[in-house]
Amino acid sequence: GISLHVFFNFIETHPRIWPLQITPLTKSSTNSSMASLRFSSLILGLSLVLSLISPAYSLTCTSQKFTNNKLYDHCNDLAQLTSYLHWTYDSAKSTLSIAFVAAPAKSDGWIAWALNPTGAGMVGAQSLIAFKQSNGSMTVNTYNISSYTSIMPSKLSFDVTDMSADYSDGLMKIFATVVLPDTAMTTVAQVWQVGPSVTNGMPDKHGFQPANLNSKGTLDLLEGRTNGGTGGDSRMKKKNIHGILNAVSWGIMFPIGIIIARYMRTFQSADPVWFYLHVFCQFSGYVIGVAGWGTGLKLGSESKGVRYTGHRNLGIALFCLATVQIFALFLRPKKDHKFRFYWNIYHHGLGYSILILSIINVFKGLDILNPAQKWKSAYIVVIAGLGVIALLLEAITWIVVLRRKSSKSTKPYDGFNNGQGRQQPLAA
């Protein structure tokens, strides 16, 4: 808020650098209009950010429903891998009915949930693994994991009934009822995992990122709590924050700002409102983007041995280009300056380069974060929508400009020096 206030004040108090045609407005009406514009723009920006952030954190186990109408006494948001456990403990029968929900590492991957009666990790885990078969239907098999090498379907050390699996909205679900091996058990060790692929009906290796290695903990059957692996949860939240900040800034606000500058300025009634909207979108996008970029650098420093070189390099390039673009605005020549033509070429070229690299890097980030497919689809819809709007405005503004030229060409004198100063679609 303070940075934007200072930025707008600089624009208003340096008319030679920011040559806007606002002489018809009085000082009081200008201040009033600017205050109203800033407030409205701020509310619009905050609403956009909140509308995108809220869904990312609204998917908790309490909001999940099952098509088979099964209900459970407890549910827990597990600490890693965006996973959820619904469960009911029947002490009289010593059974644990569960529904494990998680997104596979890739759409054709697998998910697994296990109890480990003898340890706390993978070895000894009595696992239920679900994946898509070659015909597209879901299956769930049992695996008694005795080593870190290849696994084969095998009988567990305890009985399991009512096994089934489901897949919808990018999430796989495992349903089962486990007969606990010890009737006196009140706390059990659980392990869960997701993997990227299945080959010939056999789950392939999962990833070895911190979230994969920390996907384990305990389940307190009496208290209804899960414990363990909180470090991975913190990293996942940072990843989500990093993704949201960058998708909103580089992936949405920058394109909107470019659309505003390219098309709104063609309409004389939109001057100077279009300029302030353009500055608001680009400057706010830059501030939010820098915050997201910094979060990404922090994540990189905490993820030893994990490198996403392409995504990282594009992020650094975007930060550098956007920083040059923002600060170069303070050196913008006046419209009649001999260097203004070259400045326009630089400004447009750099702006469109940032636009293209931003969208590419958002998709790279989505592939790394691997959220539910609907989030990637939502971003595709947003970008496609902005593209359609841009195409429509491109046609409309060219029609407006050509008609304006045609109208002025019929006059013996149009008030311009050989056409200099006329509004053009790509002028800056």
From TrEMBL:
GO molecular function term, any single one: metal ion binding
Entry GO CC: membrane
Residues annotated to bind heme b: 242, 278, 311, 347
InterPro entries in alphabetical order: AIR12_DOMON (IPR045265), Cyt_b561/ferric_Rdtase_TM (IPR006593), DOMON_domain (IPR005018), UCP037471 (IPR017214)
SMART domains membership: B561
Renumbered residue ranges of the record's region Disordered: 408-428
Domain Cytochrome b561: 202-402
PANTHER family: CYTOCHROME B561 AND DOMON DOMAIN-CONTAINING PROTEIN
Name listed for the protein in its UniProt record: Cytochrome b561 and DOMON domain-containing protein
Species: Davidia involucrata
